[in-house]
UniProtKB/TrEMBL annotation:
Residues 460-601 form the PA14 domain. InterPro entries: Cellulose_deg_GH3, Fn3-like, GH, Glyco_hydro_3_C, Glyco_hydro_3_C_sf, Glyco_hydro_3_N, Glyco_hydro_3_N_sf, Ig-like_fold. Coiled coil: none annotated. This is Beta-glucosidase. Belongs to the glycosyl hydrolase 3 family. It comes from Thalassotalea profundi. Keywords: Hydrolase. It comes from the Bacteria. PROSITE patterns: PA14, PROKAR_LIPOPROTEIN.
Length: 869
């Protein structure tokens, strides 16, 4: 078994071989930093002089032209002054394909492919500063190669709720972890002469009514939980731009909140970059202008002159309602960003794209983020890694076995040069030596029409049905509309509580394209009135609710359909329960239970690639529940029973329930792993890479255990953040709820010993640093990496504080029997909470406990010290 060594970036966390002194920064490096600092100051002076020179020459109209978009993704040029167009692009996981200048349609380019990087949840799961740096370096270089000036990423909002549709874009649930990873990401992007864009500022924690929900956290929660990552991006990362959030903050859009923008971002933090909007945000001219919004990128009007920061802003300035100085500040910031990225510089970096180097980086990040959740011993040995030499027959199942994810999810979609699926990765690794049997298992529950047949697309790129809600059965008064991933609808508990009416009147539509001609047997299971039209002809009409106490089989209807012809399907439903429309189609894609279970018992190895897709994890829509879609739980449970060596490999960006977890002997979590995911996953499964990822989120046993749900604080109108600072793992510890898998959890193919924990002092005084050291030894037989996690507990706080708060971490690579000493520093801010009385950070005198471990629930050593102010 061989392993690739992981290089480490040196920094505040230092490593040394056992018995040797820890490494220190030498004088050459210190002198180099001084030189670089001097050069940066000189460059900054030149930038400010250039900004003022340009500003003095600009007319009012020219200034206004820079504060709003002149296309979907670009800002106006001022040719008279030599100012070119400024171009922006999505997204956080690769440069988005080129769209038309003035519409969302594809521009039809054939050379706009980009490296599809693992999603930022995977970076967070690596717990590795180097992976964050590599991610940013690829994103920045490829953005430059595509001629972009601002890349809209990284995304840094927190995973407060497992249902949140955009969790996959972000860096987990902990503000400290995200803050440490965002800094190298931002720096690496901007080292390529491109502006990073940390988003979405702030409190964007749900997609349910994302443009209207009113976020109302208390000030301590805001400061301790939802702002530290943005603060780090600004103060430590020097980020050139931020994107405001869709949601409201205390009654006004976050982009025009005086408190968020003027008081904190541009006031306390001294942010001198550009705050820009997302697309179609609910702002107004006066508040946006006066409260710090700099650039309006997308508003639903016919003419760019009608944007809030266009002619309406000019009019208010001419009428004396808004000072010219307010506009000048915005223009200075935009010009400053343009100068910083070298927009006028002939020697600007050119970038590179789709290189072998970038593809290797994508693979490396993907492998570092894979988390081994469970690996039990069966017949005397762990299930994983699989022994390639001993395996002759593998059964592969699951919806993600051959699923590509790059083109879905929303603004994070990537037109990848290629994408290696898990199945393709297995085939590439095993070649012809191993028989790989592939099946799509069918459960006993009626499944909706598979996405293979759905030709219609949600704007995020996902195969989907349009769903519209009406006031009554005339279907004339539209209440709302959205998209649903397939032909199944269920009024879940949350939806029922949020509905003002007992009955719902629903219309669903999609374009369906049969794969083969012949008889298609439509099957309907409905509790409520159900009607199906195909090309406006009624083919099914079921009236009256079924008796809920009587078990009934789905009704069946035969219809002849033609291969590759597109049919308009429309469902009308009246009721408050559920319906599913499925079918048996010619050349059935699915294998019946008896057959796949028989194959599982005979296979040397069974791998089920399950989880979610961008039909579930996607922008603009939250998930309705935490369950695996399409009865995966039933299939997984039966596979585990048929073959105890079944490996459950989940691909998802948010937590899912796992009712079969206790029975499973091997569970792996792989995230959306980018273009090299299949290779990376195979490397882990067969032991070429030793897994070292750790969960950046808590995996609850059930949705009801999550704070926002338990406190009834998830709805379409108002989020009070009732849990306060107790987000994620902090809530579970406070409430004494044992999750399925805790924050920071992740196993290895080797074992590590923690020993000889030391503190540099028993007392920490104001403005001093406390150094915590511990020796890590690889006591197993294979090389691997461990993530040392430092948690802090304030034992004598005057306010309620979490039992544990992450305040340090480092990833260390060790050969068998090798030891290294890890140093992690703590400072006053690490000890502090936000004091609402002084409106500042406060570290109180008293005793603190510092804990070091392999996860939140696996603490290996602890000690105490006193803080004296």
């Amino acid at each position: 078994m061989s392993f690739h060594k992981i290089s480490l970036l040196t920094g505040a966390i230092l490593l040394s071989a056992c018995g040797e002194k820890p490494l220190t920064v030498n004088n050459d490096i210190a002198n180099e930093k001084t030189i670089n600092t001097t050069a940066a100051v000189n460059k900054r002076i030149n930038i400010e002089e250039n900004v003022e020179r340009l500003l003095e020459q600009m007319t009012l109209e020219e200034k206004i032209s820079l504060t709003h978009a002149s296309g979907k993704f670009h800002v106006n040029a001022i040719e008279r002054l030599g100012i070119p167009e400024m171009w922006l692009s999505d997204g956080p996981h690769g440069v988005r394909h080129q769209i038309e200048r003035h519409s969302w349609d594809s521009a039809g380019w054939t050379d706009d492919h980009s490296t599809y990087l693992p999603h930022l949840t995977s970076v967070a799961a690596s717990w590795d500063i180097e992976m964050a740096h590599l991610h940013g370096s690829v994103l920045g270089a490829e953005a430059r190669d595509r001629g972009k000036d601002i890349i809209l990423g990284p995304g840094v909002n927190l995973a407060r709720l497992p249902l949140y549709g955009r969790n996959f874009e972000y860096m987990g649930e902990d503000p400290f972890l995200g803050a440490k990873l965002v800094v190298p990401t931002v720096k690496a992007i901007q080292a390529n002469d491109v502006s990073a864009n940390a988003k979405h500022y702030a409190l964007n924690t749900q997609e349910l009514n994302r443009t209207g929900v009113n976020a109302k956290p208390d000030e301590r929660t805001l400061r301790e939980v939802y702002l530290p990552i943005f603060e780090a991006a600004v103060k430590e990362g020097g980020v050139y731009s931020l994107m405001g959030a869709y949601n409201e903050y205390y009654g006004t859009n976050a982009n025009q909140s005086k408190h968020l923008v003027m008081d904190i971002l541009k006031g306390e933090w001294g942010f001198d970059g550009v705050l820009l909007t997302d697309w179609n945000v609910d702002i107004n001219t006066y508040d946006a202008a006066m409260n710090g919004l700099d650039l309006e990128m997308g508003t639903n009007v016919d003419n760019y002159d009608d944007y809030f920061l266009a002619k309406p802003l000019q009019k208010m300035i001419e009428e004396g309602k808004i000072p010219v100085s307010v506009l000048d500040d915005k223009v200075r910031r935009i010009l400053r960003l343009q100068q910083r990225v070298g927009l006028y510089d002939d020697n600007r970096l050119k970038g590179e794209r789709n290189t072998k180097k970038h593809q290797k980086i994508a693979r490396k990040i993907a492998t570092e983020g894979v988390v081994l959740l469970k690996n039990e011993v069966v017949d005397g040995k762990p299930v994983l890694p699989l022994n390639q030499k001993a395996i002759k027959n593998i059964l592969v199942l699951g919806p993600n076995a051959d699923k590509k994810h790059g083109t879905g999810g929303g603004s994070s979609e990537v037109k990848s040069l290629y994408e290696i699926t898990p199945l393709a990765g297995l085939k590439a690794k095993l070649g012809d030596d191993v028989n790989i049997q592939v099946m799509r298992a069918r459960s006993s529950v009626l499944a909706p029409i598979a996405s293979d047949y759905v030709a219609s697309r949600h704007w995020t790129g996902t195969a989907a049905w349009n769903i519209s809600y009406f006031s009554d059965n005339t279907y004339k008064e539209l209440l709302s509309e959205s998209w649903i991933v397939d032909s199944a609808f269920n009024v879940n508990k949350l939806a029922k509580e949020n509905q003002s009416q007992k009955k719902q009147f629903i219309k669903m539509s999609a374009d369906i394209k049969p794969l083969k001609s012949g008889i298609h047997t439509l099957k309907v299971d409905s509790l409520g009135d159900f009607e199906l039209k195909i090309n406006d002809n009624v083919v099914i009409s079921l009236k009256g609710n079924k008796d809920q106490n009587v078990e009934l089989k789905p009704a069946s209807f035969d219809i002849s359909l033609t291969e590759n012809e597109v049919y308009a399907f429309e469902i009308n439903y009246e009721g408050n329960q559920y319906f599913t429309l499925g079918w048996d189609a010619p050349g059935n894609l699915f294998t019946d239970e008896k057959e796949y279970l028989a194959a599982a018992t005979q296979a040397d190895a069974v791998i089920y690639f399950g989880g979610l897709s961008h039909g579930d994890d996607r922008e603009s829509i939250d998930r309705p529940d935490m369950k695996l879609p399409n009865s995966q739980d039933e299939i997984i449970a039966k596979l585990i029973k048929a073959n105890p060596n079944t490996v459950v490999f989940l691909v998802a960006g948010s937590a899912v329930e796992m009712p079969w977890a206790k029975q499973a002997n091997a569970i792996v979590w792989g995230w959306y792993g980018g273009m090299e995911a299949g290779h990376a996953f195979s490397d882990i499964l067969f032991g070429d890479i030793n897994p070292s990822g750790k969960m950046p989120i808590t995996l609850p046993e059930k949705l009801e255990d999550v704070a926002a749900i338990a406190l009834d604080d998830y709805n379409a109108t108002e989020s009070l953040y009732k849990e306060g600072v107790f987000i994620g793992y902090r809530w579970f510890e406070q409430q004494k709820i044992t999750p399925l898998f805790p924050f920071g959890h992740g196993l290895s193919y080797t074992q590590f010993n923690f020993s000889d924990m030391k503190l540099s002092s028993e007392t920490l005084h104001k403005d001093e640093l406390l150094t915590v050291s511990i020796t890590i030894t690889n006591i197993g037989k294979v090389a691997g990496s461990e993530v040392v996690q430092l948690y802090l507990h304030d034992k004598e706080a005057s306010v309620e504080r979490p039992i544990k708060e992450l305040k340090g971490f480092t990833k260390v690579f060790l050969e068998p029997n090798e030891s290294k000493t890890v140093l992690i520093t703590l400072n006053k801010r690490d000890l502090s909470f936000w004091d609402i009385n002084t409106n500042n950070w406060l570290a109180e005198n008293g005793e603190f406990e510092v804990m070091l471990g392999s996860s939140l629930s696996d603490i290996r050593a602890s000690s105490v010290f006193n803080y004296v102010n």
